[in-house]
Each structure stands twice: as C-alpha cells, then as structure tokens.
C-alpha cells in the first residue's frame, strides 16, 4: 500500500512539474486595456486591397526564369514603375496562422498557442480588420474565421470555400485561387446594381482581403520548383492585374485605393515550412497606389549584402525591407485607422509618399501605441514623456519593446527557482525512499537476493527442447503479417504513382492503410507467446504501419534497429545465463563474516549499469532516430498520403504522433524485462532550463519534448511495460481446438 501511495505521489509531482513550464514559459504576451492611437491628419487612401499569396517565396516571384523573363509581368511592372518593393522578413514559426496574425494584427506568434492547435489564436486580439469600417474577406476557412471572430461588431464579412477543396492530391490546386478571384469579381459587379452595397463601398477605411492558398498547396504537393507552383504564380499575377483594373474602374479612378501584395511565409525546396531557413522567412512585399512612393531608381550600391539584388536583376530599383509585423502599421497609416492595439510593428516610412508632418504624426502614434502596451504591463497610470521627433520615437519604441519582454518574463526566475527546489526535494525524497527500502532491513535484502535467484533458475529450467521448434510451425498470424508487410510496401508506391498522375488517393489503398493501422496491435495477440515468435509478430505488425507512414529511406530504420536489438537480447541472455549460474549463486551463499570477493560484486553491479545504459541508448535512438514529436510542427504531409490527402491537421498530426513512438515501442517490447529506474530526475533540471519560448514551433517543440521525455521517462516505461506484458504474454484464440491424447 505504501508503494502504491509512493507511485501516486510521484505521478502527481511529475504532473505538477510538467504543468509548471506552461506557467513559466508559455504565457501569452498580449495585454489589454490600451487606448487606440491614430494620426489626426487625413489619410491618403480611402480603401485598401490586401492580397496574400500563401506560401510564396521571395525568389520565386522576383527571380527571372531560365530565359530571363519574369513569371509575374504585371507585378514586375508595379515594382519598376508605380510602386515600392522589398523583402518582408517573417519570424519563426513560419506557419500560415502566425504569419497572417503578424501581417494583419502586427504581433508575432503567441507562445501560449503551444497547446491550442493551428486554427485560432488563444487570446483575443485587435487587428487592422477590426479597426476598419468594413472588411470583406475571401479565401481559406482555416484563416478567415479567426479575424471575423475577434472583431468587435459585425463589420468583417468572410466568404470561404469548403475545407474539402484543400486537397494535396488535387489535380490543380490553383483552382482555389481561381475561386477567390471569381468571387471577388462577382462581388464588385453586384455592387453596380446594389445601391446599399455600393454605398458601403464608397465610404472610407474599407479593406478588401484576398487569401490565395493555391501556391502553398501546390508547393506542398509538387515542391516550389515544380511547374504547378510556378504556373500558379502566373495565374495570381494575371488575377491581380484584372482585379486592380476592376477596382479602379468601379471607383472612377479616384486615386484613393492602396494595394499591398505579400506572403505569409515561404517554403523549402522539399515543400515544407515552419522553421527559419531563408527560403521560409523571406517573402515578397509590393505596395502601390494612394499614399505610396512610386519606383525609385538608384545608381549607387544599396546597403543589402545578401546578393539577392544581383540574382533578381533589381540592382537599379530601391529595395525597402521590413519585418513582417511592420506591414500592419503601414496599412493602418494608409487608410487612417488606429494601429492594432497589440502591434509591435514599426511604421516603414520609406514606403509613404506624404508630407513630413504626416510621417511624424504617424510615427508618434506608432510610438505611443507601443508605449501603451508597456504602461499596461507595468501598471502605470500616467506618462510625462514628450516625444517630439521621429528619432526619439524610434528610441522609445525600442525601450518599450524591451520593457514588454522584461515584464513578460518578470516572474520566470522566481517560478524557476521554485521548480528547482521541487525537483531537488523530490529527487532527495526518492533517494531516501530507495535507501530506506533496500538497506534498512537485512531480512528484506536476503528476500531480494532469494527472489532474484529463483527467477533466474526458473528461466533456465523452462528452456524448450529443440524438437519443439522443429515440430511447431510458425503461427498463421505471423505469416499473415509477412504477406501484409509486402502489401504495405506496395501501397505507398502505388499511392505515389497515383498522386504523380494526379488521379487522387485510390480508395483501396486508403482502406488497406486504415485496416492495417487498426489491426496492428491486435494481430500479435493471435500468435504464439514464445519469445521470438511473438517478437517477430509484433515487429512485422508495427513495421507494416510504419511503412505506410514512411516517405523514403526512413523505412529502413525500424528493421535495422530491430535487428540490432535482437542481437543485443541474445548477447544479454548469454551473459545472464553464464553469470546467473556462477556469479549470482555465489553471491547468494556469501558469508559476510568472512572475506568477500569484492571484485565479483563490482562486476555484477557493472553489468547491471551496462544493461541500463544500453537500454537508455536504445530507447533514445528509437525515439529520435527519424525525428521526434516536435517534428510534427514542421512535417511533410507526404507522410500521411496513404491515409488521406485532404488537409486535416488533427488527423494528420495524430498519425504522425502514432508513427514517432513505433520504434520506441518495439525496443521496449524486446527489453521490458530489464528494469531501469531512478536515472531520470537528475536530467530534469538540465532540460528544464533548456525550455525556450522563442523560435520556430520546431525549436519550441524540441525543447518541450526533451523536457517532457526526461521528466516522464519512468512513467512512460511503466506504461509501455504494461502494454508489452499484454502483447508478449496474452493470447487471443479465435476458435478452440480439442487436444487429443493417444495411449
């Protein structure tokens, strides 16, 4: 009973330690209660058209093709004649939701979203859409709803296509963008015969938002260098050209429309995003129309030393780079609405074509808006600082941002010290319990030695004759699992071929995949409980599922690891057999009143330590060999194409979470009888201080996964040992056979 209470208390302590990192590292930096700030001068634009080409890399738009011609002639003409351009530097995680939040709300990823999923921001926030008079949005159901939900009032209107259209196996994902352009055209045409709608459109501070997902979807499915991805850029360019013409015609070419074209994130050459590679963080930014500088020709070398100007053949055009969050105050300034309350963006003055007074007032509003956040964080009641110049405004913005970061992490040291004391206290308590349990009673010590010898002798006596292996055939489920592995090796190949031909996911392949997944834990229970029969059945069943979730050479990892562990088990069995007869029997007959062979005792203990380290090595290799839980935040959707191709983050993430522990489970199944305890808590503090709340979701997730893995190792092994016991000792009989005895 005391041991049960001990394990329950230990479980509670570990749960508390796990929850502590979310209170210390992953609290929302957003604050509320600030007063909105806006320039008192009239804005240059009455309306804003924002176009976000999801997943568009900067080089894919700016760099000429092999023939020296551009893929986007209209947008290129904007850069060379009517507008300003640059590179928008995104921050990790380079995902769609945080990217759009940075663009439209002006702040970067809210780290408290670590446990909230991809769909919505965990805390309500202000945005350019919320501050506008009206906002009309067209695009993906994954992005638009969160801006409508957070808006005060009902002035944000969203038009989305069904989620089922976001299919990576689609014959042409560019149809998503075609749908958006067609809907916007229809909307503008209807305004000509709808006086009420036209009246709303004629008012100032209006925003039109187009979210174009086709480029991102084609990039995931076919990679950014594919013809599908590049042709989608041409489609977007022609669509923007036609749309601008319709807008100007609808409003009588009044010169009061501002245009912003950009992307939420880029994409790697292998079709993923989420981390911090330049191909993911460098996105295009084009701004033109009312209140924006036209193209600026330059003859002197520009300040950028990354070599992109030469590669893109744009050395003669002024390039103005910004941070992604800077676009929110830029849009607010152009149409004269308050900067979003939680924005940390700095107004890029180089884009504005207006008076110095307007720039100064806009910059002042930007500075006060950020200072308001600092005041709320610091709980100040008033402020006597007078900001007179743009340079002072920039300085104040920097200090205010530092203050926001300081007070956001104000309690981190105190809470961290508390957790350290908890860790050390718990570790000390565990050591005391172990010492008390194992050395306080001589009788208890002898009982432990006796039990060890009995178990060792029982395992030796129960060895089966060789004839049993000759007479007994491998059970049918084992052979079934081997015809099964062959099928599961064929399914990914067949699926890949079908997707390459743009024929979609074959229904038969999908049915085989889900059936295999569902039966992978049940089939081993039908086989013999003999060690290698059962281990082979488990290996084949789990390998079948792993093959379906593999994208390449990673499929070789489980067989190689399993072979290595089979060899390890054989070596350990031989070692335990030789030492179990001589060493352990000798240890049981030791007379402590006489001289003791200390060398023999040390050797036995060293063998135990060696087995423990090999166990830890294998389980870490199994878990991190082809990735870990953190990689789910930046995964290649091709891994789950055998199961589904329609975008569903929860099912896809669940399949990846099922895939990652597979090798770990195989290892524990093979070695669960070798006990490893009390070597985990010492590493907890090390990984506790390595938890980070910045960087990509991959970086954040990696730090969390390291901490959680080390902290919960003991509990994890206990649960796996329970499952392993069921898989290795339990057996399910689908029918009964009568055993016949002959005289």
Automatic annotation (TrEMBL):
Belongs to the PIGG/PIGN/PIGO family. PIGN subfamily. One of its GO terms (biological process) is GPI anchor biosynthetic process. InterPro entries: Alkaline_phosphatase_core_sf, GPI_EtnP_transferase_1, GPI_EtnP_transferase_1_C, Phosphodiest/P_Trfase, PIGN_N. It is a multi-pass membrane protein. The keyword Transmembrane helix applies. It comes from Oncorhynchus tshawytscha (Chinook salmon). It is found in: Endoplasmic reticulum membrane. GO terms for cellular component: endoplasmic reticulum membrane. The chain crosses the membrane at residues 413-435, 444-462, 468-492, 531-549, 612-632, 638-658, 704-728. Keywords: Endoplasmic reticulum, Glycoprotein, GPI-anchor biosynthesis, Membrane, Transferase, Transmembrane, Transmembrane helix. Its main location: endoplasmic reticulum. Its EC number is 2.-.-.-. Residues 482-696 form the GPI ethanolamine phosphate transferase 1 C-terminal domain. The gene is PIGN. PANTHER family: GPI ETHANOLAMINE PHOSPHATE TRANSFERASE 1, PHOSPHATIDYLINOSITOL GLYCAN, CLASS N. It comes from the Eukaryota. Pfam families: Phosphodiest, PigN. The lineage of its organism: Eukaryota, Metazoa, Chordata, Craniata, Vertebrata. Pathway: Glycolipid biosynthesis; glycosylphosphatidylinositol-anchor biosynthesis. Ethanolamine phosphate transferase involved in glycosylphosphatidylinositol-anchor biosynthesis. Transfers ethanolamine phosphate to the first alpha-1,4-linked mannose of the glycosylphosphatidylinositol precursor of GPI-anchor. One of its GO terms (molecular function) is mannose-ethanolamine phosphotransferase activity. This is GPI ethanolamine phosphate transferase 1.
């Amino acid at each position: 009973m005391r041991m049960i209470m001990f394990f329950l208390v230990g479980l509670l302590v570990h749960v508390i330690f796990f929850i502590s990192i979310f209170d210390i590292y992953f609290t929302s930096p957003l604050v509320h209660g600030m007063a909105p700030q806006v320039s008192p001068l009239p804005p240059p634009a009455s309306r804003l058209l924002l176009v976000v080409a999801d997943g568009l890399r900067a080089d894919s738009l700016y760099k000429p093709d092999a023939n020296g011609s551009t893929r986007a002639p209209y947008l290129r003409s904007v850069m060379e004649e009517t507008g300003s351009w640059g590179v928008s530097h995104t921050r990790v995680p380079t995902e769609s939701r945080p990217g759009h939040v940075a663009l439209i709300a002006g702040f970067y990823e809210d780290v408290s979203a670590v446990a909230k999923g991809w769909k919505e921001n965990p805390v309500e926030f202000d945005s350019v859409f919320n501050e506008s008079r009206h906002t009309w949005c067209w695009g993906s159901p994954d992005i638009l709803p969160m801006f409508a939900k957070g808006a005060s009032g009902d002035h944000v209107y969203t038009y989305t296509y069904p989620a089922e259209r976001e299919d990576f196996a689609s014959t042409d994902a560019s149809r998503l963008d075609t749908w958006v352009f067609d809907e916007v055209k229809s909307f503008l045409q209807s305004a000509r015969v709808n006086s009420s709608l036209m009246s709303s459109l004629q008012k100032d501070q209006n925003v039109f938002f187009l979210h174009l997902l086709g480029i991102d979807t084609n990039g995931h499915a076919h990679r950014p260098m594919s013809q599908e991805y590049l042709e989608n850029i041409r489609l977007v360019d022609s669509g923007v050209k036609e749309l601008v013409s319709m807008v100007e015609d609808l409003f009588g070419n009044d010169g009061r429309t501002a245009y912003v074209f950009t992307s939420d994130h880029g994409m790697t050459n292998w079709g993923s995003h989420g981390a911090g590679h330049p191909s993911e963080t460098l996105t295009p930014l084009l701004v033109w129309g009312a209140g924006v500088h036209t193209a600026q020709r330059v003859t002197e070398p520009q300040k950028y030393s990354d070599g992109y100007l030469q590669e893109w053949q744009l050395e003669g055009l002024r390039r103005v780079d910004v941070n992604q969050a800077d676009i929110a105050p830029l849009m607010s300034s152009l149409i004269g609405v308050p900067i979003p309350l939680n924005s940390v963006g700095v107004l890029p003055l180089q884009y504005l074509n207006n008076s110095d007074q307007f720039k100064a007032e806009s910059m002042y509003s930007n500075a006060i808006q950020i200072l308001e956040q600092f005041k709320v964080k610091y709980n100040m009641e008033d402020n006597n600082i007078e900001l007179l110049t743009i340079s002072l405004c920039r300085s104040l913005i920097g200090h205010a941002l530092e203050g926001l970061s300081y007070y956001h992490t104000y309690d981190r040291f105190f809470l961290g010290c508390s957790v350290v004391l908890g860790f050390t206290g718990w570790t000390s308590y565990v050591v005391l319990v172990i010492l008390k349990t194992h050395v306080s009673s001589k009788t208890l010590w002898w009982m432990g030695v006796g039990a060890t010898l009995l178990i060792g002798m029982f395992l030796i006596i129960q060895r089966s004759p060789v004839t049993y292996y000759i007479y007994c055939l491998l059970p049918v489920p084992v052979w079934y699992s081997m015809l099964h592995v062959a099928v599961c090796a064929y399914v990914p190949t067949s699926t890949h071929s079908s997707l390459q031909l743009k024929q979609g996911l074959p229904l038969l392949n999908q049915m085989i995949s889900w059936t295999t997944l569902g039966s992978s834990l049940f089939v081993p229970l039908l086989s013999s409980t003999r060690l290698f029969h059962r281990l082979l059945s488990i290996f084949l069943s789990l390998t079948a599922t792993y093959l379906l979730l593999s994208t390449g050479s990673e499929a070789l990892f489980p067989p190689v690891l399993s072979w290595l562990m089979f060899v390890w088990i054989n070596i350990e069995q031989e070692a335990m057999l030789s030492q179990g007869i001589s060493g352990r029997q000798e240890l049981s007959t030791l007379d402590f009143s006489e001289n003791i062979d200390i060398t023999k005792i040390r050797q036995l203990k060293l063998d135990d330590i060696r087995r423990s380290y090999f166990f830890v090595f294998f389980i870490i290799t199994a878990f991190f060999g082809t990735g870990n839980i953190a990689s789910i935040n930046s995964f290649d959707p091709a891994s789950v194409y055998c199961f589904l191709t329609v975008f569903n983050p929860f099912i896809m993430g669940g399949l990846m979470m099922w895939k990652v522990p597979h090798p770990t489970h195989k290892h524990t199944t093979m070695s669960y009888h070798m006990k490893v305890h009390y070597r985990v808590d010492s590493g907890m503090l090390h990984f506790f201080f390595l938890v980070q709340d910045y960087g990509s979701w991959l970086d954040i997730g990696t730090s969390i996964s390291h901490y959680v893995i080390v902290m919960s190792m003991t509990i994890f092994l206990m649960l796996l040992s329970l499952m392993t016991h069921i898989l290795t000792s339990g057996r399910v009989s689908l029918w009964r056979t009568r055993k016949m005895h002959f005289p």
